[in-house]
Structure formats: C-alpha cells, structure tokens
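# step 3/5: fold
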Amino acid sequence: MKLSQAYQKVPLMYRAQIDERSQLQYINKNQKHDIKRWVSEWTERTYQTSPNFGIDVQTCDISFDWRLVCNGGQDDGIVRPIIGAKGYPFYPGSSMKGAFSRVCTPEKKDYYCGKITPDGEMKPGILRFHGGYPIDENWQEKLIDIIHPQQTFQVKNQQREGGAFSQISLYQPILRFGISSIIELEEKEWQTIWKLWKQAASKGLGSRVSAGYGYPQEYSDKVIYKTSIQGQGIAPTLLDETAEFRPNIFKAGIRGHALRIFGGLTDENTTIQLVEQLFGGTKNKGGTLGLLAMNFQTEQLEIDSFGSGSWKVKTYDVTGHLNWRLTQSLPPEQEEKLQELIRYLTRFAMIFGGFGKSWRRADHRLFYPEYYEGRQQKPLIGCHWQWSGKRSLIFDVQVRKLEKISTFIKQVQTIAKEWMQLQGVNINHQYTDHWREAWHPDKVQVWGRIAINEEESEAIAWLHQPYRKGDPQYNIPEGSIYQSSLTGQIKQIGRLWHRMYPVIRLVKAPNNPKKPLAKQTPKYLELLTLFPDNSPKSQEFIAYLNTSANEFQRLYPQ
C-alpha cells in the first residue's frame, strides 16, 4: 500500500534538516515550531525511570546552577543532546574521562586513566568512566533554549545576524555520574577520586561553558575575578512564554564593550582577533577557545511581571556572584594583566549601562514612574544594575564623583593598550571608524550631572518629550530627540545610552579609622553616552548640552 506523504509518519528526529521536512533551527512566532514537536516526540517516548548503574559502579550527584548543553552533533545547524539508554540525555564517559584527566597530576593521570608505553602500546588505567544521567524527570522542563545573536547589531551597524535560533539544553539538571575500578579501592581513595571529579566539573562541563553553561552549584575552580551584583529588568521568555533569567547576558554585554574599547584603539580585523582571543569565537577554522569563561551564581531570584494587556512582560530581580576564570595557562605577566582587564571591562559595563534587554536605558519604573501613570498601556523600558556586597562596594566602585569618569575611561584604554602590546599588537592611530560605537574621542562623548535622588533624573524625560520647549516669540524652535537616530526606534539601535549610577561614599569605620566602609547615598551620577552622527537633531542636541540651560557637563573627551 502506498502512503501519501509517507515522510509525515517519520519522527522529526530522523528527518533531514531541510524545508518542509524538519526545520529545528529557526524560530518563527507566526508558525508552528518543529523544535517543539521534536522535543515532544522525544520525551513522550523516553522511559519514565532513569538508567541505573551497575552494583560495582560508584556514583556522585552534581546539581547544575543554570543550563547544561552537550552537542550530539547529529543534525546540521542544530545543537541537540547526546541521547543514550532509554532515550535519556547523558554526559558521555569519554568526555568525563577527558575532563577528569586534565585535573590529575601526570602520575595520577597514568594510574587512573592510562598511558602510552615506550613501545607504543596503550596501558589502561584502573578507572572506568560511565558518564552521567539525569536522576529524575525534571530534565524534561525548559529544554528549548533560545539564542539571539546581536553582536553586529549592537556594536557595528544595523545589520542583524539573523533572528532567534534554538538549541536543546538541560535546565538546572541534577546528573548522577558513575565511575568504577578494575581493582578494589579503599574508601579514602574514592574520596580522592570524587574530589578530583568535582574539581573537573568546576571548570564547566559540555559546550558553551565560557557563556555560563555547564557549571555546578558547588564551585571550587580558580577564579581570577569575582564580584557581587544586583539587577532588575525584562526577563527573556522561552517558546512557551516561560520567563528565565539568563546569565549569558554578562558575557554578551562585556564582550560587546571589549569590541567597543579595542575598536577605538585598532583596526577591525585586529579588534575581532583580540576579542575572540579573550572570549572565544568561530572565525578561525575549528573555532577559538577563549582565555576567559564566566559563570553566575544566583543568590536570590524573583520572577514577576509588569504591565497589562499586550504590554505585559515578565521581569527579573536577581542578586548573585559573577565569576571570571582563566581557561588556559598564561605567563604571569599576561595573567596579571588579563585579570586587570576583565575587572575594568566589568566595571565599565556597570558604570555606563547594564545587561540584558534595554540595557541602554535606565529603568523607567525607578527613575521615571510618571511615564506609567494613567490608563495608557506602555512598554517596560530599561534595566538597573548596581554593586552588591561589602567587598564589591569598596573595591569595584572606582567612580564616586563625576570628575573621575574621564580618568576611569583613560585607565580602561591604557589597560587595553598594555594587553595589546603583550599580544604583539602595535599601537598606532588607527581605529575602527566605520563602527557605530567604537570608543574613540572622535566617535563618543560622555556627559554627566549629579541627581540628588532617583526622582531627579533630568534626561530620562528627553527620551519621550522635548528637551527644549519652543518659543515662537523669540524664534526658538522646539528641541526633540524622540524617535531620532540618537534615541532609535523599533528595529533601529540608537546612539545614546542613559545611566543612573548609584553614588557610593567611603567613610571610616567608627572602631577602626583605617578600615573603609561603603555607604550608599540617595544620589546618582546621571550619565549620557553619545555616539553622535551628522544629523541635525544630533548636532542641535549637543549644542543644547553645551548651554547653561541644563546641568550636564562634558566629561569625555576633555
């Protein structure tokens, strides 16, 4: 019997990734999603109980802080998990052995994992690595992971790198890992083995670890920079409209600022090479493993909503620890400079903007609540980030006065130049002048003022209404930047950042005058970062900032 459209009977897992057969990669909100059907067909046929290791296998459970992704590599253009016994996703034993061996001393590596003998034969080690499986059915939740590439759109020009793309990753799974030995071992040695495995897992397991994937909740790996931050903003949503706070916003944001800083110091190709060396990339054949990897340890997280009707969005309020670690060994001088560079890039991001959606704007809920007064439905605009914890408030707050802004920017540029010199890059007067947001004195201006409290922002209203009222009697035209090239509009990134940066003072401890204490104040540094173009509205606005009609003063370049 001949079936009409017989391919429709074949599960998507076994179909070619072509139009009208199976298209897992691209997300189109106006169509049904093949990726949702793929996941449904997979999970419905998976056994209800997880695989069990044999009685001779020792096990250890590890909880992951965010997502874990292991690329099965079986479908072109889509990252899907490795699927093992009973349909369960698993972390393969071969990858487990590789991660384990990298944290062993040469002697322990030979003993546990095996070695090549002088005559070229392989002598197996005493351990057998059986991989890891989720321990319960919770792994089936939030499997579809959405990715939005925006580097070009955010920094360089208006060209988008495509829309939303999908991959399959496990959300906050608990995996049970198994190891066995060909000889009987004492309990003390098993403790050593599991300690080594936890150390290996602390470096991140699976793919995309540099963006915060694959890190366990118990983190013991060496961190070259750690800080505590708190933020609130618009939460990303998955295909089923579930909200999720995504820690990879930190890498994306700071990587973008690295592009801006280096783009103001050298040409485009060198800039991209420097940034890919730091954070990884795909330009070179086989890709580049970045020197830096990050993860975010969530301390508190509240998911809520804001607005009503079609303007209703999910929001987050999160506090946690941002960790940066080194993925490779470097000479001491380079490691020290890299540590300094990532500290200052993180501080740069905190001073001039934020992270995630609408990071170029201050949170209107905090600094412009009248925007939402009345019955008119309006979108949530902006986010707000600030340092958290005593240590961060003392050491990471490098700018406490407006006069320090220019000094700080020059310090960031100096550190970037020193890193370039250590990489053999010649410093010259070239810069990436065709990028919209290259950080060069000819391309960017920073203006600032002191706001006495959160209700006293002057510039936030200019995003929505005239900054100067017209007066026909004196031939004074109305001044507005609303929906201009400066402020942007739908599908167009603007050229203005607005930031309300909390002012933190240092005072002497009452019982120990030599010990500084951080004191929060009601004041804010209100900062405008402009990448002006030649449009009349842009030039008129800068001319207005130069007048005494407002309190802003130019901080950079001076």
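# step 4/5: annotate
The chain has a mean pLDDT of 88.
# step 5/5: archive (pending)
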